[in-house]
Design goal:
Length: 199
């Protein structure tokens, strides 16, 4: 059975994070939420809701700054040695980031499918964008990148993503896909041709 793993970046951002949780709960689908540290501090109750729902919280840096070229001191402040999984903001990393993650046994997580919900405005556009990439994959499954928050806007308006999440789950379950936790996916994922630069 082909596998899909849902991941959400840039939260927590209530009420959209809670709305995503409701969709996931309705379908009993696990997910990983890559949270920005400063937002976790400001939205502790939402962080607890994600944990209580049984989802994994991943590290998305303290301030969502680009980490290529960062000093060890900067990495210690931004990554802070916590979490099983780390997704670098913007997907940008270098050997210094990789060495830091190895030192503290934190796994780098990228993605196979970028639904571009950070750019597209409607749920239909987001689903179509994801589908075009999923349909081209030959591997056993894919890690899907979505966003429950907005790195540039703390209000985190992601209502189109909430609806798109529902549609993605129903569409691909009907096609025989299984939605699985990140722990069931092969890591790390290597950058694919056509992605943004990761250097």
């Amino acid at each position: 059975m082909k596998k899909l793993s849902l991941t959400f970046d840039d939260g927590p951002s209530p009420p959209c994070t809670e709305a995503v949780l409701a969709v996931l709960s309705h379908y009993s689908v696990p997910a990983t939420f890559f949270m920005i540290g400063e937002r976790m501090r400001a939205q502790e109750s939402t962080v607890r809701r994600v944990e209580q729902a049984g989802h994994v919280i991943g590290n998305h840096a303290l301030t969502h700054r680009r980490l290529t070229g960062a000093t060890v001191e900067d990495l210690d402040r931004e990554i802070n040695r916590w979490g099983q999984y780390f997704r670098p903001p913007g997907g940008h990393y270098d050997e210094g980031v990789l060495e830091y993650l190895r030192r503290y046994n934190i796994r780098l997580v990228l993605w196979d499918v970028d639904a571009r919900d950070w750019e597209l405005r409607t749920a239909g556009e987001i689903v179509d964008c994801a589908a075009a990439q999923i349909n081209k994959l030959n591997a056993e499954g894919a890690i899907i990148l979505l966003h429950d928050g907005d790195a540039e806007d703390s209000s985190g308006n992601r209502w189109a993503t909430v609806e798109a999440t529902d549609r993605i789950i129903t569409r691909y379950r009907a096609q025989g896909f299984e939605f699985v936790p990140l722990s069931e996916m092969t890591l790390p994922r290597e950058p694919r041709k056509g992605w943004r630069s990761f250097t």
